[in-house]
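Field: sequence (string)
Field: structure_tokens (string)

Example rows 1 and 2, in order.
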Amino acid sequence: MSLIFILSFNIFICVINFYLLWQLIRIKKYLKTLNTRLIYINKNLPLIIKEVSLSILTTALEIKKIKEKYRQLKNNISNVQKILTISRIIYKIVYQTN
């Protein structure tokens, strides 16, 4: 009876050890892939920073162009309103005198 208990307990401990070993192997594989990815990112970090800064500068330039176009459009609207006001006055003067 005692021998059966000891053998079954040892088998149980052996199964747990194999499971833990399997988990360690999985963690080791995961850490290897993580390490290779970090090395790749570390090597390419200056390139990534340059791409991000170029993207930010491009976006800032586009925003500046849009603001300039908006300003021009606002000036054009103001000019058109002035021309319409003058043309209404001239229209009233011409057709009211007749």
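Row 2 begins here:
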Amino acid sequence: MLVLSRRPHEAIRIRHDIVVTVLEISGDKVRLGIEAPGDVQIHREEIYLAVRAANEEATARPGAAGDLARALGGGAPAPRGPAGPAPSPPAASPAPATPRPPADPRRG
């Protein structure tokens, strides 16, 4: 673990796209500001651990996949027998192509 000391309004950078700034220190609390790309998930540790535990509990329960499918409105998944999975439904034929109108010569 890397340990750093920072004062209020000082920052650390992680890679080139994540900046963590100490906004305020008040008693035993530190307020942090985090700038990161939208695809980077940021969670408080206790929330992350609670969600992970709930997910592990849900998937460990017998019938959890069927419960999820019903909750999502899809019904229970088809049972698999010795013959393997159920056959796939026939593929839909593609929609006919719509012709494009001719290009406007006034636009460049």
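free_text_note (row 2): The chain has two helices and three strands.
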